[in-house]
Structures are given as C-alpha cells and as structure tokens.
Amino acid sequence: MILQALARYYQRLIERGADDIAPYGYSPEKISYEIVLAPDGVVLAVNDIRDTTGKKPQPRVLEVPQPEKRTVGIKSNFLWDKTSYVLGVSATSKRADKEHEAFKALHESALAGAPDEGLKALLAFLQRWSPEQFQVPLFSDEMLDANLVFRLDGEHRHLHEREAAQALRARLLGGGEKGAGPAAAAEGVCLVHGESAPIARLHPAIKGVNGAQSSGASLVSFNLDAFTSYGKSQGDNAPVSEQAAFAYTSVLNYLLRRSGDNRQRLQVGDTTVVFWAESAGNEADARAAEDFLASLFSPPDDDSEAERLRVVLDDLGKGRPLAELDPDLAPGTRMYVLGLAPNASRLSVRYWQADTLEVFAKRLAQHAQDLRIEPLPWRVEPTVYRLLLATVPNREGAKPKADDAFGNLIGETMRAILGGGLYPRSLLASTVMRIRSDGNLSGMRAAICKGVLVRERRLGIRTSDEEISVSLDKQSTQPGYLLGRLFAVLEYVQRSALGGQVNATIRDRYYGAASATPAAIFPVLLRNTQNHMGKLRKERPGQAVTLEKEIREIVAGLPDEFPRSLRIEDQGRFAIGYYHQSQAHFTKHDAAGDAAGPTKTETEGAL
Fold this sequence. Notes:
This protein has helices at residues 2-16, 83-86, 96-110, 117-128, 163-175, 242-255, 283-297, 303-317, 322-325, 357-371, 384-389, 407-419, 425-438, 443-458, 479-498, 506-516, 518-539, 541-556, 568-592, and strands spanning 26-31, 33-37, 43-48, 60-65, 81-82, 147-152, 187-189, 196-198, 265-268, 271-278, 334-343, 346-356. The chain is an alpha+beta fold and 607 residues long. Among the domains are: 32-174, no CATH class; 284-334 and 356-462, no CATH class; 473-595, no CATH class. A hairpin with a 2-residue loop joins strand 9 and strand 10 (271-278). The two termini are 38 Å apart.
C-alpha cells in the first residue's frame, strides 16, 4: 500500500508539472560545470554553472538521465557524470582510469551511428580526450569530482536535452541495455500496478533520511541468500516494475528534499517523517490539506497564527466539523504519513498511517486536549519533538539532545498521536524517572503525565476512579495527587520562611523519594515544616494561618497512614498535583505581591 500510494502521488506531481520531479528515466541531480564542444569534439570552453547567489557557490539542480546505483562496481551514467568518469581525473578515486574507460565504452556503444550533431561531437570528444589534457586555463583542480554535462557550441540546451538524446535514452530504457539504465530484467506481475512489466532487480536509491548513507538507502532490497526464496534473486523476490520502482523512489526523494520551502518533511528524533495528500477533487484541495496538516505538525511561531490554530484545535476537540472551521478544507481528503528510520544501507518503516484529513485533524486535536494543563506552560502548541526532549536528561548549561531519547519511544508516541491509540507506558515512565533524576518538573513534563493518564482512562484503562482535571482540583481524594499538592505546599512554606536564597529546597533533596516512597519522607518533612511555620508565625502570622489551613485540608483527604510506595501512574499524579499547587501559589503571589520568593517551577519556555 505504501508503494501504491507513492506511485499515485508521483503521477499527480507529473500531471501538475511539479519542479524537482523528473519523468521516467530522469532524475534531478546536482551539476557544477558544463563542457562546451565544437562539432568536431574540441573543447571550446568549460563553464561554471553553479548558483552564486549565496555565500558559497552551490551546484545547480538539472534534470539528467537517472544515475546508476553504485555500490562497489563501476557503472557509468549516460551523458553526464563526475570528472573521474567523464575525464578520468579525480582527487579521491584510485581507479579513475577504469571509470573513464567505462564511460567511454558505454557511449561508444550507445552513440555509434547516431546522426545527431551533438551526439557525434561527444563521441569525437571521447576519442580525442586523454586525462593529461586536464590543465589550466580550461580546467582547474576545483572541478575535481564535480558533476559535468555537455553542450554543443551555439546552443543553450545541454546534450541530454536534445530530442535525439532523449529518443536514444528511451530506446535504451526499453531495451534494458546494461549500463544505460535499469538492468535488464524478466517480466512479471508488478505488485504495485498489477500489470505485467519488466521487474526491477535493483531499486533506485532513496536519499534524505537522516542517519542513512549519503549515497542513499533502499526501501526494498535483497542482497543475501537468507532473504530470498524459491531460487529468486534480488528484486524478483518482491516484483516491482521498473517504472513503479522509479516512481516511488522519485517521489520519496522529492518529499525528502532538504529545502526551506519543503513543509512535507519533518524530523522527530531519529525518524524522518513525510506526508502527502490525495484528493478526489481538485489539486487545490490536496495542497490545502497538506498545508493544514503541516501547521498541525509544526505550529507557527507567530502569536496570532498560533492562537488561531489553538482555537481550531479546541473547536475540533469539541466535535465541530472541520468544514465549518475552514471552508477551504475538504474533510474527505486522503492523507498519508510515513515515518522512515535508517538501518545500515536500508530504511526501516517506523510507522505508516493513512486516513482522511478530518480524522487526522481530530486525533491531533484530541492529543492537544489530552495534554492540556493549566496554567498553560507553552506559547504555541508543542511539537512531538519538544515532547520527546522532555523525556531526555536536562543537564545544567546544556540543551537536551533528541539523540538521548529511545528510538522505540519516538515511534510509538507518534503512532499513538496519529492513530488515536494509547500513548506508550514508557512515555510516562521515562518522564517520571527524568523528573526524579534531574529534579526538573517543567510544565511539559506534567502535561505528558496528564496526557498519558487521561488517554488511558478515556480508552478504558482505569487506574483510579477519579478524572484528572486540567487545573487545580481541591476536591480530589487521589493519594498521589494530594501528596504532590502537599509537597508543593511544604516547599512553599520553606521558601516563605527562608526567602529566595535557599541553596537547596526540599524539592531539590527529596522530590524523588517523596514521589516514590511517601511514608519514608513525609513524616520528616512535616516535622521540619514546624520550624519554618514558627518563623512565619512571628513575621507573617496571616500567611502562617493560611498555609496551616491548607496543609490540614490536604492531610485530611489522605489515608490514616502515608502509602509506603506509589505506582508509576500515582507518581505521575504526584507530578500533576505538585505542578497544579505550586503554580497556584505562584499565581497568588503575583496577584497579592507577597514578599516571599516565587516558586521555581519552570514553564515550558525553558525548553
């Protein structure tokens, strides 16, 4: 289904005339120089055709005959290649002479008898060229290992763009001549189109997946006997026609391109995600759907746009149809999301989701609702990437690294968001352990704990009879939540009594133990709090009365004895209760202008 959807998208892009998507047998490649030939094959000029508008010259992307898939063998491209093949000179290759021989042999075979003037010029050039001619002023060391194309003097188009060259290319593809295109293969029923066609033994390389080989990787490949069956070899084990293989790899390379205007590609941990739309209506519906989904995956930084998106998500969460929120969107537009991860020379499919735009939008809105916690710790809706950063170590003075996140956690979380299923329990466990480890209870981490527990309850997994509220719930009797609130109040008492100059608060010293083994810590904390309360009674008796009342109310809701230990879900509720209560103190402090120092609970801005 993945290859079929990609092949359909390729056809849609071809019909639309999209840039950077080539017809069958061609490929957009980076070219740096052109060699201008006289009709007799003499080199008249060598032009640098790189784009010089930026700080450094960049190769220009030209549509050239599809390159050969190279591993360790020598295979020449048709009518273009790098200098080791075209000219027999290289700064890195130790077999440039053999590579040039391959280039020469291919073109002498393919162009023999061609009546076209440009092709005859190329043939003449190859017959008179020797690597010793690579000298200034026409050639320079800067050209070494760059890609070259040819042009006939007096013309603007390159040799591979001439009608005779394109006709020859089509004939070579149809005949499957070795070295001029896809290798010759037997016919079979294509798994993508269901029609009998030449089967691709090797599929073109896919580039652009982070962590994969720079020369490209394969989505479908068989190169060991252990992977094959019934005596078949390579691509015959999963028969995909040459045209279908070209289509799905071309469109994947298009989706994976690294450019600022590509909003259909995003990186989540070690997984590279691409998505696209397929509309039964017009092209505008598909484009609008892709733009909308891109804004949901990567919310805009602009405040007004972020607020508009939040309103849309809230309305979707309340059940309003997508068509009412934005008439330009067609709710039935089919959307596809593909997550790819590197695996040596191959690509792993981390997840694959296909559904309508409205279904995806409502699942993302539900994800936002599940995470929602007050006070809201973020200015714009958090991306999955930011969620995952909350589960990795937060070292002082260093930014959290996505590489520290577990690969499986990334894939399972993304799958839960897109599929509407349970978040992985490891997301809750990782977050709780991180809070205990580095003591950073940010709003994002509290929101993750809430999101996991709220979704589990909504989907029928009940670990408590109580719902988890978005904001402070003083009516809650859940021990984990109450203990979190109590711990926040005790910390506030300490800060109020000692001011903001405390080197290490009780949160810095006891949070991990308090959230895991309350019976061992809370009696000690309550005794020590009396010392702080005594100081407060002398300096601010009104505040002391208020805090004592707050402690009594919370303790009254707890069992007669503190729990010996809390399960992982209750430790999540502990974090939520702590966040709600400490933020309530912070809000009251702002409103009343209290002299005590503010709590140190971070907002998500820190991430």
